[in-house]
Specification:
- With 179 residues, the protein is α+β, with helices and mostly antiparallel strands.
- It contains 5 helices and 9 strands, in the order ααααββαβββββββ.
- A hairpin with a 2-residue loop joins strand 4 and strand 5.
């Protein structure tokens, strides 16, 4: 093959394959591809804090302490009540302040906290309301809300504080009762 044909073949091969970047020998590739280190957090401390907040929220329903609810619920919290209706933080604060809900006791039973990471967790358990009443505007008779409820509350850590971002409760029916 003549020299010009060989040079043309080499140019064609280079153009078809493109230029390859040089290997970076100044970096440790193992470090660059390693997954990020896990954040250290104290799961037991998070569990204790969330259970404490749940009990404060339950007590605020009984004592009508809206300040606790304002602190515990995130501004964008979504609440699903046992009847399927939904509410916001503002709705919950208004209900607490109106004293529409009364109860002899509002207890948290069987709480189980699941810590997802240092900034998110959820709690499940039962809420037990004794002699509970809910006065609904426009209704002559208060609604009896006594009983047991299964709940799930999702917490996120925001600005160093644990807050509820989602909450859902379902009435536990005893045999022979209707919703």
């Amino acid at each position: 093959m003549n020299r010009s044909a060989l040079a043309l073949l080499i140019v064609a091969v280079v153009l078809m394959t493109g230029c390859q970047p040089a290997l970076d020998t100044n970096r440790n590739n193992a470090v660059a591809t390693a997954p990020p280190a896990k954040e250290a957090y104290d799961a037991k401390a998070i569990e204790a804090e969330i259970i404490k907040l749940e009990r404060e929220w339950a007590e605020s329903n009984k004592s009508h302490n809206s300040e606790a609810v304002k602190r515990i619920l995130a501004d964008n919290a979504v609440i699903v009540y046992p009847d399927g209706s939904t509410a916001t933080k503002a709705d919950e604060v208004k209900t607490i302040e109106s004293a529409a809900i009364t109860a002899d006791s509002f207890e948290i039973a069987d709480p189980k906290v699941t810590v997802i990471d240092g900034d998110s967790a959820f709690i499940t358990g039962r809420g037990v309301i004794k002699n509970g009443k809910n006065v609904v505007p426009g209704q002559k008779k208060p609604i009896d809300i006594s009983g047991e409820y299964r709940f799930l509350d999702v917490y996120a850590k925001r600005d160093g504080k644990w807050q509820v971002v989602a909450s859902q409760a379902t009435k536990i029916l005893t045999p022979g009762t209707t919703p």
